């Protein structure tokens, strides 16, 4: 999946006014205005507020899932979602919206639904529940539940299950598509290569003709052979190079085999954390997302080693984190200096990975606080030094 795994709110979204593949206008609007339009087109402003909120959250989550999975760009389209209820949700260009709906959207458009323990916004499908029924939320049914006194979360859990949670105050930014901009080929190294290897390995479970390969971030002969096999299966130019066409076919197939764009999704978990890049150092005074990831790893390892103290995952490398690092270094036979360079990070990561793949196999990690859940969305260690005053 895209290198940026943290879902975000797009500042603008491009809507195709007809079903995909049919003539229509592409309209670019702010995401909040898009949701106001959809909500005013899909539901009635006279409904109970709990029902309105539940429907708006479902609409936000569904649209964010489309953006997150690059559902249409990966299929060659130049838009992010359609305005047709054939596959998406109703959008009517230029329509007026309702004052109470606008107020709720302004409050809720940076909040979305996700399955507990997974990354992607829920593909929160819905239908009117009268002329059309589906596995997702019933719009009229949600209003009936609201009339019975159900809260917004009770309504959502009635339709999407108990294992959902809300993410609030998601960051807002321009849409960033995952393709790196230039072809990736033999000799390349780094995060994009790791993403390619990870996707190929997942797809190979459904297409055994694609060989399994190491996920080491090095584009060598094995990776090239796997790319060629993928290209051969899907009628792409068989050159072993991941250009834009191959990249988006990989993304599209990955979304398909994991069903990330479906209500019932295999899901992307938070526990996939990559080893560090060479030359990166964390020490007391460092702050930011890399420190949070380190604290998460130490928290898991510490559950199996009483000598490693319990940490607060706050992204600040203070004395407590230094003490935990020293304890981990001592336990792992490393120089106990409290500084996390590549060697220390790699050993802590390997220890964590061993625990995750054995003792905690099948367990929905993490099991701790919301702070842990928020800390483990980082898929790679940064390629720069973090010192006092650094920020994510």
Biggest sheet character? 3 strands, mixed
Q: How large is the share of residues in beta strands?
A: 5-15%
Tally of strands: 9
* Strand order within the widest beta sheet: 3-2-4
List the secondary-structure elements in sequence, H or E: EEEHHEHEEEHHEEHHHHHHH
Low-pLDDT ranges = 270-278, 360-392
Shape: globular
The average pLDDT is 85
Rg from Cα: 23 Å
State the helical fraction.
25-40%
Give me the secondary-structure category.
Answer: mainly alpha
Q: What is the count of structural domains?
A: 3
How many helices in DSSP terms?
12
Write the layout of secondary structure elements.
Elements: E1 9-10, E2 12-16, E3 26-30, H1 31-42, H2 49-68, E4 81-82, H3 99-108, E5 112-115, E6 126-127, E7 137-138, H4 139-147, H5 152-160, E8 164-167, E9 172-173, H6 191-204, H7 221-233, H8 244-258, H9 289-302, H10 319-331, H11 342-357, H12 370-375
Parallel strand pairs: 1-9, 2-4, 6-7
Antiparallel strand pairs: 2-3, 5-8
Explain what you see:
The chain has 392 residues and is mainly α. The protein has three domains: 9-171, no CATH class; 191-258, Orthogonal Bundle (Muramoyl-pentapeptide Carboxypeptidase, domain 1), CATH 1.10.101; 289-375, no CATH class. The chain is built from twelve helices and nine strands. It has helices spanning 31-42, 49-68, 99-108, 139-147, 152-160, 191-204, 221-233, 244-258, 289-302, 319-331, 342-357, 370-375; strands at residues 9-10, 12-16, 26-30, 81-82, 112-115, 126-127, 137-138, 164-167, 172-173. It has a three-stranded mixed β-sheet with strand order 3-2-4. A two-stranded parallel sheet has the order 1-9. Helix 6 packs across helix 8 (244-258). Residues 270-278 and 360-392 have low confidence and may be disordered.
